[in-house]
């Protein structure tokens, strides 16, 4: 996904999903908070960045957390929105990190006391089965990256029906191609010569 957005010069940032996993937040909360605050500062320094994305695994179900920097808004794109999920651990961490980000940022961000708003029921594609949430997250990431440059970021929307079979097949094919050419191939950018495949 990072390569895709770089190739298209899309102003989108990413957070490491491992650092924001539930176990990492519980075990290393201070580190996770510091990491998010530093990354937000990094992306905010370049005023072109509109979104910061992180896939988040909640009870073996992947969702996309989309931080809209210019709106102080966090959208939760959950492909099984009918489930009642408790995001309080993540929202609490993001709120704390945002406070740190404001405190360490330039003077103009310190005026007033902006807070993050969390929209945990943002309308998005809904999956028919429970084993494709990761592909839905990847699709939602592509939708968000393609929506950069909107005159009003409030105009960002995602259809709410299931993703078409062809689009899911294309995602699987792209993932397989990436793994074969960039990870497994000895000439790949992400090849690890000591890994056993």
A few lines on this structure:
The protein has 197 residues and is α/β, with parallel strands linked by helices. It has 7 helices and 5 strands. The relative contact order is 0.14.
List the helices and strands and how they pair.
Blueprint: H1 2-7, E1 12-14, H2 22-27, H3 29-45, E2 51-58, E3 61-68, E4 73-77, H4 88-104, H5 107-110, E5 117-122, H6 133-146, H7 165-184
Parallel strand pairs: 1-2, 4-5
Antiparallel strand pairs: 2-3, 3-4
How would you portray this structure in words?
The protein has seven helices and five strands; from the N terminus they run αβααβββααβαα. It has a five-stranded mixed β-sheet with strand order 1-2-3-4-5, sandwiched between helices. The model has no long low-confidence stretch (mean pLDDT 88). β3 and β4 form a beta hairpin. By secondary structure, it is an alpha/beta fold.
Q: What labels would you give this structure?
A:
alpha/beta, 7 helices, five-stranded mixed sheet, 197 residues
How many beta strands in the DSSP annotation? 5
* Residue share in β-strands: 15-25%
Low-confidence parts, pLDDT < 50 over ≥5 residues?
A: none
Alpha carbon gyration radius: 17 Å
Mean pLDDT: 88
Task: Give the count of helical stretches.
Answer: 7
- The end-to-end span amounts to 22 Å
Order of helices and strands: HEHHEEEHHEHH
Q: What oligomeric state do these chains adopt?
A: single chain
SS class: alpha/beta
In spatial order, strands of the major sheet run 1-2-3-4-5
The largest sheet, given as strand count, sense and whether it forms a barrel, is: 5 strands, mixed
């Amino acid at each position: 996904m990072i390569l895709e957005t770089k190739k298209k010069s899309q102003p989108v940032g990413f957070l490491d999903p491992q650092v924001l996993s539930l176990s990492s937040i519980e075990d290393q909360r201070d580190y996770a908070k510091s990491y998010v605050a530093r990354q937000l500062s990094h992306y905010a320094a370049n005023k072109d960045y509109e979104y910061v994305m992180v896939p988040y695994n909640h009870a073996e179900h992947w969702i996309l957390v989309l931080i809209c920097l210019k709106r102080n808004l966090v959208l939760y794109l959950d492909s099984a929105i009918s489930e009642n999920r408790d995001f309080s651990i993540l929202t609490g961490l993001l709120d704390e990190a945002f406070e740190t980000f404001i405190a360490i940022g330039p003077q103009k961000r310190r005026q007033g006391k902006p807070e993050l708003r969390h929209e945990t029921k943002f309308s998005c594609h809904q999956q028919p089965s429970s084993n494709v949430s990761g592909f839905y997250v990847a699709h939602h990431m592509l939708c968000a990256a393609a929506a950069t440059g909107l005159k009003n970021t409030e105009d960002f929307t995602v259809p709410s029906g299931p993703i078409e079979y062809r689009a899911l097949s294309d995602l699987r094919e792209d993932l397989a191609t990436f793994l074969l050419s960039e990870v497994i191939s000895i000439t790949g950018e992400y090849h690890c010569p000591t890994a056993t495949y």
